[in-house]
Design goal:
By secondary structure, this protein is mainly α. It has one helix and no strands. The model has no long low-confidence stretch (mean pLDDT 74).
């Protein structure tokens, strides 16, 4: 196992956070469009 660099680890974490937050963000955008 090669330990990833801090930059790579941060990038992976940001990707995971982005993917996990993508659905609720899209739902919020759709809700805003419906209310507009």
């Amino acid at each position: 196992m090669v330990s990833p660099t801090e930059e790579e680890a941060t990038a992976d974490t940001m990707l995971v956070l982005h993917e996990s937050q993508l659905v609720p963000v899209l739902q919020l955008l759709e809700g805003c469009q419906e209310n507009a």
